[in-house]
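COURSE: Structural Biology Practicum
ASSIGNMENT: Worksheet 4, Part C
STUDENT ID: 0417
INSTRUCTIONS: Below are two proteins. For each, the amino acid sequence is given first, followed by its structure token string. Answer the questions at the end about the second protein only.

PROTEIN I
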Amino acid sequence: MWVAAAYRTASFVAAFLPTRAPPLGLVADARARAFNRMRELQHAGDTASGLGRELAAAEGLRVREQWKANTERSDLPSERIRCAIRANWEEWFNRSHGGMSFRLTQVMTGHGYFGSFQCRIGKIANPTCEHCGRAADTVEHTVEVCPAWHKEREILRATVGEDLTLTSLVRAMARSREGWAAVTRFADQVMTRKERAERESANNAKRERGGMSTETFDGC
């Protein structure tokens, strides 16, 4: 079963691509084509063993190609993740390793504990990074430049290389278990600390207003 935990604001496009789960519409069409073709062949007297598996495999490849073509549509959301996975399409889908975590999904979709995103959904008023105060806290800022995560970033670079754009990270993740583990470790460490910092800020704000503190716990 393909699963990814994500913010409910993440688009279907952004949620489906990391898990490699094709859109249900494409899957339904493929199964209908395979079923109809199977009936045609059976009526023609072709009862070769394994025919169903061959049809299913062929339709699976067709679904993947249709899906890839669909990701190029300019009217779809989540361009960042669409471009990153499309650039590494075969390696991403043919890999035999890697599972999605909630914090890894945040880094891939950009929907998470990033000031720019939190500001966009109305949770905070200022998108500036509270860890360095130098720029808007986007996912790119967090992963590529924020000095607060220099140590974690250098460990990541030791495995995946200097380029930390999402396209490069997806490539490293798809090519090896080590690359996948390195990106996941970075996401887990950094996003956990950002979550805690956000809760501390919320608690401080409540104390200043004379309210009760929110419960502190690690996000799942």
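PROTEIN II
(use this one for the questions)
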Amino acid sequence: MEQNVVDDPNYNSDALESVHSSDDERGKKHEQFPEFNEKTDMKNPTLTLGLVFRDHVQFKRALIMYSLVNRYGEIHFPRNEKLKVTAKCAKRCPWKCCVGKMYGSKTIQIKTILDEHTCGRTWANKNMKSHLLTDFNCQIRVESRLWKNEGYKALDRALKIIEGKHAEQYTKLWDYAEKVRNTNPGSIMKVKLDRGRFQRIYVCLGACKEGFKSGCRPLIGLDGCYLKSVHEGQLLCAVGIYPNDETWDIAYAVVEMENKSSWIWFLELLVDDVGVVNQEGWTFISDQQNGLIPAFQKVLPNSHHRFCVRHLYTNFRNLFKWKTLKDALWSVVKTTAVPHFKKVMEDMKKLDEKAYNWLMKKLAHHWSKSHFETYPKCDMLLNNLCESFNDVILVPRQKLIVIMLLLIHTLLMKRIQMRRIQW
């Protein structure tokens, strides 16, 4: 049944039957109407006659949330003024709700309500906006692509609320670096700025550094991977190997991109932390990233540099697609003596002279076991050290920079503790 109390334009809303009443000092009774509490009532609004709202904006948000939660479909507003709002169901059912100004104030309250829906319930509702879902932590199902976009916007807003805005994260880097130095003695944190703005950060945790120095082979894998946050960038990493063939993460850095400058900066810091004195006793393996080879020539000209054979084979396969040549390539790669290497290369020359010439242009000490140095006591051909690290940090790479660094930090500490328990 419709309840209408707005026929008289001079109507005094205080004449409505109130839920509560109170007496003043003279004994005169004052009526009090229920007020809409946005913090507690917005998740599941209940509309009653006389309900008081702060303004027309709060009333409209409450009605839209009411329709979303109860799946009543869309609501439109034929009359939309600051002190007078009329709301009706868009499907032409008799439901209606009107608010007007309370007597003696600019507050509005429900003066007419016909709370009867004859339309069927639906999940589709164009009134749904992202700010409603995030501001009031609501879970509402949507079915249309148009409205799913609002869902994605709501997810983005929610992540900003939880993790903070992207730009604010960079102001917290110095606090994070100081915290790491205090809690993990020996840690090295370097932040580089470009004209007062963040450019790079280098992280070498004290426990990782000391663990590598005390028990790992003098072989380090280098690699870079893309970050998937809003500001993008790339993450460079250095990973070592234990004598029992387990990986050991040493250092990582967030840079603007992979180039000669960023690799030189990363390698110089890594060399100081690891304590590389005699470069000839150290071996590095990489995927020949952009700018890495010239960086090696400047920072580590006397060290040994291996190339990941998987990437070498990928380039080889683009030119020579025979399976016979593939098997021949891997035979050359796995040879352990120079005479055997020469013999297998001659066999490849008989199969395809172009493939032979292409491979001879690559220095053998970069990719064949027969020319590797024996000091590291490791004949590794693939850079799986870094590939496994990149795979483990797949989720952190999608986060904002401080969140990402914290997740990687936590991951490495957990890994060290688990190995300590196992050993």
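ANSWER KEY EXCERPT:
Q1: The first strand starts at residue 3 and ends at 4.
Q2: The radius of gyration is 34 Å.
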